[in-house]
Structures are given as C-alpha cells and as structure tokens.
Specification:
- This protein is α/β, with parallel strands linked by helices.
- The chain has a single domain, classed as NAD(P)-binding Rossmann-like Domain (Rossmann fold, 3-Layer(aba) Sandwich), CATH 3.40.50.720.
- Helices cover 52% and strands 14% of the residues.
- It contains ten helices and nine strands.
- Strands 3-2-1-4-5-6-9 form a seven-stranded parallel sheet, with helices on both faces.
- α1 links the parallel β1 and β2.
- α1 packs parallel to α2 and α7 packs across α10.
- The protein is globular.
- The N and C termini lie far apart (67 Å).
Length: 271
C-alpha cells in the first residue's frame, strides 16, 4: 500500500521542520530540502528520532534555482513516489527602512520568496499525485496586513497570495488543492535574524502581538490542510487582525500609525 508523501522546502528549521516532524509522526514519508546540506542532514536525523519508523529523506535545494527544484522532485519521485503534500516554507525577511533596502537586497527577498515559490510550484506540477494532492505556499500575515519596515517582504508575501489564488483556480480541475499559510510572528531562527535589522517602530508594532511557536503553527496547518480553506491563518489574534484589515481598515491603520507616532516621539525625546 502506497504511503502518503510530503515534500517540504525550508524543512531544515522553523515551521518547515516542525511540519515535517508531525507529518512523519502521522506515518507520512517525508522529504525535506534546504540550501545548507549539513544542517539539512542534522534535521533529517532529528525527524527520524521523533518518528523512527518513518521513511525520511533530504535533498539540498535552492528554490531560487528552477533546475534545483526540478531535481528535488525527480529525486522524490524516484525514491518515494508521487507527492501528496508539497509545502513551500523557504523564505527570507530582512526588515529595514526602505531607503536602506538597495536593489540587491530587495531583489534577494523577491527572488527567494516570490520566485522561489514559483519555481517550487512549477517543478512540483509533474510529480503531484494525480488522484488528489495539496500544494501549500507559505506567505505571512504580513502578506495580508502590510507592516512598517517590511516593504520588500510584504511585496513578496502579498505576491505569493495573488499567485497562489490564480494557481488554485487553474489546478482545481486537476485534483490539486492550493492553499496559503499566513503565520504571524513565529519563534524561529529566521525571526531572530529579522530582529537584527528591524526598525524600532517595527519592533514596537510586533511587541503588541503574541509570538507563536513553530509547533503551534504546524499543528494548525495540519489540522486545516485537507479542508476547503484557501487561507490558513494560525491564531485567533491573527484572524482578528485580518478581519480588521478587511472590514475596518481605517481602525487598524489608526492603531498601527498611533504606535509608530508614539515610538517616534519617545525616540526623539531620548535622543
């Protein structure tokens, strides 16, 4: 009997690794990919320690390279079979003031987040289970609600939602369910890196929101991965924020602008 197969980019850490561990524990065959082959192997061993009876594989892959993505899915097909769940969690965020984000920095975020999503999806198409499969792209709550200091990141993550929505319409008749995961701030290595460049105004906005664990995001994704929801937004607070943005955008704008003004006055006073 064929086991379900899951492929996860960005699977060596954070949300991607948390999802991989949980799916392996649910008897999925799991393949993780990322650029760092050493860290990738360590994460593969970690998944095996959590789910010792699971079939686990790893493959070095750079989602900004279309050919690299193609080779990933060829490896999966040859060693595991058709893919039932393809989850793209590879991403990059380096928040800063827009005037500090030069073309190269902006391009790197767009290449990783938006083009990386395109490359992963394009490569996956020929290898998805033709009977039924799920393709999940990881955007962000910042793809729905733009935030001070994230001009490049918000552009890329909003683009993922638009891209995925159009792709969802195209693939529906081919038994592929396309979804988008929109997590809020999540306690991961990537979030630690964000804090190194984050403007103080951005930190003040983030301080008012609950920092979620990668495990809780993974649990919510898995709970909703086979229903009909297009947007998967973990956390009541995050869903309320999205509700405010949709139905009362002026209220949310005033709240966020008020935080920025207050912090700028404090900063001016202290300097």
């Amino acid at each position: 009997m064929k086991k379900n197969v899951a492929v996860i980019s960005g699977g060596s850490s954070g949300i991607g690794l948390a999802v991989a561990e949980k799916l392996a524990s649910l008897s999925y065959d799991v393949v993780i990919c990322a650029r760092d082959s050493v860290r990738l192997k360590q994460s593969e061993d970690q998944i095996r320690s959590v789910a010792p009876h699971a079939k686990v594989g790893s493959y070095p892959c750079d989602v900004t390279d279309e050919l690299s993505c193609r080779k990933l899915f060829e490896y999966v097909k040859n060693n595991f079979g058709y893919v039932d769940i393809a989850l793209n969690c590879a991403g990059l965020a380096r928040p800063d003031y827009f005037q500090n984000i030069n073309y190269e920095k902006f391009d790197k975020v767009i290449q990783t987040n938006l083009y990386g999503t395109r490359n992963f999806c394009f490569a996956a198409l020929d290898f998805l289970n033709p009977e039924k499969s799920v393709l999940v792209n990881c955007s962000s709550l910042a793809g729905l609600v733009s935030v001070f200091g994230y001009t490049d990141y918000c552009a890329s993550k909003a683009g993922i939602i638009g891209f995925s929505d159009a792709l969802r319409q195209e693939l529906k008749s081919k038994n592929v369910c396309v979804k988008v995961l929109c997590p809020p701030d999540t306690d991961t290595y990537g979030f630690e890196m964000e804090n190194k460049t984050k403007p103080y105004q951005t930190s003040a906005i983030s301080a008012g929101a609950k920092l979620r664990s990668a495990d809780s995001v993974a649990d919510y994704l898995i709970k909703n991965i086979k229903n009909k929801k297009f947007l998967i937004i973990p956390g009541i607070e995050s869903r309320l924020t999205w509700g405010l943005k949709r139905f009362f955008p002026g209220v949310l704008e005033n709240i966020m602008s008020g935080i920025v003004r207050r912090e700028e006055k404090k900063h001016e006073k202290n300097n």
